[in-house]
Amino acid sequence: MAEHFADRLTAAIRARQAPVVVGLDPVYERLPSSLRPAGVGLSAAVTAVESFSRGVIDVVAALVPAVKINSGFFEALYEGGVAAYYRLVTHAHDRGLLVIGDVKRGDIGSTARLYARGHLDQPAFDEVEPTRIPDAVTLAGYLGENAVRPFIDIARAQGRGVFVLVRPSDPGADLVHDFGDATRFYQHMAALVREWGERDELIGKCGLSCVGAVVAPKDADSTRALRDALPRTPFLVPGYGAQGATAAACRPCFRDDGSGAIVNASRSVIYAYEKPAYAERFGEDWRAGVQQACRDFVSDVAQVAGM
Amino acid sequence: MAEHFADRLTAAIRARQAPVVVGLDPVYERLPSSLRPAGVGLSAAVTAVESFSRGVIDVVAALVPAVKINSGFFEALYEGGVAAYYRLVTHAHDRGLLVIGDVKRGDIGSTARLYARGHLDQPAFDEVEPTRIPDAVTLAGYLGENAVRPFIDIARAQGRGVFVLVRPSDPGADLVHDFGDATRFYQHMAALVREWGERDELIGKCGLSCVGAVVAPKDADSTRALRDALPRTPFLVPGYGAQGATAAACRPCFRDDGSGAIVNASRSVIYAYEKPAYAERFGEDWRAGVQQACRDFVSDVAQVAGM
User: Fold this and answer.
1) Contact B6/B211 with Cβ under 8 angstroms?
2) What pLDDT sits at residue A238?
3) Is B275 in the active site?
4) Which of B68, B104, B218, B275 is catalytic?
5) Which of residues 50-109 of B touch A (CB under 8 A)?
6) Is A44 in the B-facing interface, judged by CB distances under 8 Å?
7) Residues within 8 A of B (CB atoms), A 167-226 only
8) Topology of the domain comprising B5-304
9) Residues 126 through 155 of chain B touching chain A, CB cutoff 8 Å
10) Complex ipTM, two decimals?
11) Cβ separation of B76 and A106 shorter than 8 Å?
12) Which of B29, B125, B163, B187 is the best mutation test for A, with the most CBs of A within 10 A?
């Protein structure tokens, strides 16, 4: 029987003293100039994006428990980018990291079963290396339980996990998620995630479910209320760094004992070399900039989580 | 300047007298046995799924204006399946069909821009054939305007389109979409789609926007109310056939003059050979079964649309 996802995640967080995840959102145009040849074609762009991503993974592997690989940035490069996405999942696994596939899929049941095959299920084909499958994926639950059930069943059986969108970080999403009067739409989604995910059979030894929620920090009171509403649901917390949220703002996403959440930073870590503070110190050595930014990120978040 | 998507779609519907789209949801296990070798590996599965899909496209090309290719069924076969997806878009274009990429992507603005590159934008690389990009895609708008804006901007500039989920066909989605009291969540999404899509600069000569909505028929009154609430929004209508909706149930999705909607059928057409009525008549000739089921589907829907 595979070890429960939340137990694996909890152990990895403790081992690194880092309740965080580094997000890979690589855009070719923003890569270090040393990785960008002039007049690049598609396959060279895939190579550059993959090479940069491998570099980031190598640098952060000793510092964080997990990386989140954002499928959209690879799909921008068509099937070649998708192939690179899978190779990077394997590479991160080889470096001892847990991997969250940030795919945000959500479709009706008959289609969700197929998405689950490609994105979370143990491969059915001998020639497909099992390490290419992430440990968890992000999902959109807006099409209801049938959209997430195939993923949850796989997660339970295979020691994997899912994170269902409850409160996205994009301020533009508030117009959708704050809909409603006495109860807001995001609270309704939270109640559904609790119903889908906080069943006893889905809970690990650590007391957390393999069904998590994506919860961006907004005002402290409403975030704390979500934390209380989903006592056994691990939170994947977007919005830190480039999107403006501070570690203090993320604090209410954690339980009182500092467990129950992982904070994601993507652009603020992987593009650290763009920032004067890091560029002046490390110059052309973009890896050193990423490493320092990752260290700063970890210590910032670990502190508010009381680690 | 590229011709407006809604004008192209309207012309194609008129030319075929068929306000419909055939959906490609190919699952290896359900393919005709002649296409399924024993002990198949991944690349043989991709070949079989692609070969079947090409066959369906060839058969329906003379009968319908458009096909909808469901990305999930190709992603189930990893990057090789994704490559097949793109080849099938090209193949359908070569056969004179409009193509809707059923991808249902929805993410925060910074990620949506990248998804739009891979799924709707004119390729930025010379070696990528422009015909591999669908004419329109389905989108999830639950993360707000920033999640759809990059796609809408492309649609407007390039004569392409989008269909934003407003009322999905899966009955399980009702628990999400019927949320709310005086106003239901699906009505709120409809109001947002109207705001995003019914701006004058997005409207074609036919009076319809390049921003459409996915609207499954439920009870006639609520469907008619959605039609009235979105007077210039084309509807992509799921739920017909295998999912149980009749042509009559789809009628309120059309405007009074029979314009403004395309009804999708996927499994009831592409797997016609599984049904005794077609199997008895056409035997091993699965293409003939698909062709007849497509003809039956077209005449059924064209009748209620008054064509």
Assistant:
1) no
2) 97
3) no
4) B104
5) 70, 72-73, 75-83, 86, 104-109
6) no
7) 168-176, 179-181, 185, 188-189, 192
8) TIM Barrel (3.20.20)
9) 126-128, 132, 140-147
10) 0.97
11) no
12) B125
CA of B74 to nearest chain A CA: how many angstroms apart? 8
In the structure encoding, which two tokens stand for residue B184, read together? 């239901």
Does any CB of chain B come closer than 8 Å to the CB of residue A229?
Answer: no
Residue-level pLDDT, tens digit, chain A, 307 residues: 699 999 999 999 999 999 999 999 999 999 999 998 877 899 999 999 999 999 999 999 999 999 999 999 999 999 999 999 999 999 999 999 999 999 999 999 999 999 999 999 999 999 999 999 999 999 999 999 999 999 999 999 999 999 999 999 999 999 999 999 999 999 999 999 999 999 999 999 999 999 999 999 999 999 999 999 999 999 999 999 988 999 999 999 999 999 999 999 999 999 999 999 999 999 999 999 999 999 999 999 999 999 8
Q: To probe the interface with A, which of B40, B74, B86, B117 has the most A CB atoms within 10 Å?
A: B117
A117 with B174: Cβ contact below 8 A: no
Interface test with B, best of A24, A43, A110, A115 (most B CBs within 10 A): A110
Phi, psi at residue A195, to the nearest 5°?
A: -65, -45
Catalytic residue among A68, A104, A218, A275: A104
Write out the two tokens for B275.
């049904």
HEC letters along chain A = CCCCHHHHHHHHHHHHCCCEEEEECCCHHHCCHHHCCCCCCHHHHHHHHHHHHHHHHHHHCCCCCEEEEEHHHHHCCHHHHHHHHHHHHHHHHHCCCEEEEEEEECCCHHHHHHHHHHHCCCCCCCCCCHHHCCCEEEECCCCCHHHHHHHHHHHHHHCCEEEEEEECCCHHHHHHHCCCCCCCHHHHHHHHHHHHHCCHHHECCCCCECEEEEECCCCHHHHHHHHHHCCCCCEEECCEHHHCECHHHHHHHCCCCCCCEEEEECHHHHCHHHCHHHHHHHCCCHHHHHHHHHHHHHHHHHHHCCC
Between chain A and chain B, the number of residue pairs with CB atoms below 8 A apart is 189
Taking the CB of residue A302, how many other CB atoms lie within 10 A of it?
19
Residues of chain B with pLDDT under 70: 1
pLDDT of residue B39: 74
User: By CB neighbour count within 10 A (0-12 exposed, 13-18 middle, 19+ buried), where does A14 fall?
Assistant: middle
Q: B170 and A104: CB-CB below 8 Å?
A: no
Chain segment B47-60, per-residue pLDDT in tens: 999 999 999 999 99
Nearest to B45 by CA among B7, B6, B76, B3: B76
**Among B42, B125, B180, beta carbon nearest to A125:** B42
